[in-house]
Amino acid sequence: MMRHRFTAHSAREYDDAPQEIRRAFDRRIKLLLQNIRHPSLRAKKYNETNDIWQARLTRGWRFYFRIEDDTYIILSLIRHPK
């Protein structure tokens, strides 16, 4: 069974994010833990070299993570640059 944990950096970003983004993350992390290929996540490999993945929170926000054994390491929650 997969788990997740924040880095210190991503924990600060989560705490500083607007409430609706925190709620969106809480919903999306449940989906991620069940199925990385869930359509609403749109998870994809973002950086092959560093094994970093990107998934969608909302139209305007993304979160980035790495997979280590049975844990998703949440690296960042940021506004999408587009």
How does this model look, in words?
This protein is an alpha+beta fold. The chain has a single domain (3-79), classed as YaeB-like fold (2-Layer Sandwich). The chain is 30% helix and 37% strand. It is built from 2 helices and 5 strands, in the order E-H-H-E-E-E-E. It has helices at residues 8-16, 19-34; strands at 3-6, 44-47, 52-56, 61-68, 71-79. Strands 1-5-4-3-2 form a 5-stranded mixed β-sheet. Strand 2 and strand 3 form a beta hairpin.
In total, how many domains does the architecture comprise? 1
Order of helices and strands: EHHEEEE
Strand arrangement within the widest β-sheet reads: 1-5-4-3-2
- Give the class from helix and strand content and strand pairing: alpha+beta
Radius of gyration: 12 Å
Catalogue the unreliable spans: none
Cα distance, first to last residue? 34 Å
* Helix content class: 25-40%
Global mean pLDDT: 96
Q: What is the global morphology?
A: globular
Q: How many helix segments?
A: 2
Main sheet attributes: strand count, strand direction, barrel closure? 5 strands, mixed
**What is the CATH superfamily label?**
RelE-like
CATH class: Alpha Beta
What would CATH call the architecture? Answer: 2-Layer Sandwich
CATH topology assignment: YaeB-like fold
- Secondary structure: number of strands: 5
Strand content: 35-45%
Summed up, what is this model?
The protein has helices at 8-16, 19-34; strands spanning 3-6, 44-47, 52-56, 61-68, 71-79. With 82 residues, the protein is of the alpha+beta class. It has a single domain, classed as RelE-like (YaeB-like fold), CATH 3.30.2310.20.
